[in-house]
Amino acid sequence: MLNILILCTGNSCRSILGEALINHLAGDRFRAFSAGSHPTGKVNPNALATLVRNGILTDGFTSQSWDEFDGKGIDIAITVCDQAAGEVCPVYLNSAIRAHWGLTDPAHVTGTDEEIAKAFQATYDALSARIHKMLALPLEDLNSADITKALNEIGGHS
């Protein structure tokens, strides 16, 4: 089983949605976690509402630092926010395969409840499409360079 860490700055929206989707869709193939370089300390309630609307359980999600994963055997680290692409990953992630799937932060959307829900759903849908593409890959049979290339292509960064 491969361990995947979804990283974002605040670990309150996109990375939580990514963690939830991978764990929901991957079965025993992958185990996902999420963390942030500067976690907000709370999960955005709109992210949890989006998971509920899509039939995914919301128990156990927390906004936590990537420091929590030092020495935890992370195989793949995927950044999902615009700012994270330029951030330096901690030393313990040096051996992890890294990819970037940049997405606009739905937490910054203002407007009606419906407009905010639509932004969160769009982020969920984009992550779902990317994760389905990832699950179609034979990652266990690819070398690190090929995994990096394939995951970055899924994220639109090659």
Question: Which key terms come to mind for this protein?
Answer:
alpha/beta; Rossmann fold; globular; four-stranded parallel beta sheet; 4 helices; single chain; 158 residues
What does this structure look like?
With 158 residues, the protein is an alpha/beta fold. The protein has one domain: Response regulator (Rossmann fold, 3-Layer(aba) Sandwich). It contains four helices and four strands. Strands 2-1-3-4 form a four-stranded parallel beta sheet. Helix 1 runs parallel beside helix 2 (45-53), helix 1 crosses helix 3 (113-135) and helix 2 (45-53) crosses helix 3. The two termini are 25 Å apart. The mean pLDDT is 91.
Which structural category do the helix and sheet elements fall into?
alpha/beta
What overall form do the CA principal axes indicate?
globular
Mean pLDDT: 91
Q: Distance between termini?
A: 25 Å
Strand share of the residues? 15-25%
Domains, number: 1
CATH topology: Rossmann fold
Looking at CATH, the homologous superfamily is Response regulator
Examine the secondary-structure arrangement and name the CATH architecture.
Answer: 3-Layer(aba) Sandwich
Counting DSSP H or I runs of 4 or more residues, the number of helices is: 4
CATH uppermost class = Alpha Beta
How do the helices and strands follow one another from N- to C-terminus? EHEHEEHH
Q: Can you list the strand order of the major beta sheet?
A: 2-1-3-4
- Rg, rounded, reads 15 Å
Task: Enumerate the spans where pLDDT stays under 50 for 5 or more consecutive residues.
Answer: none
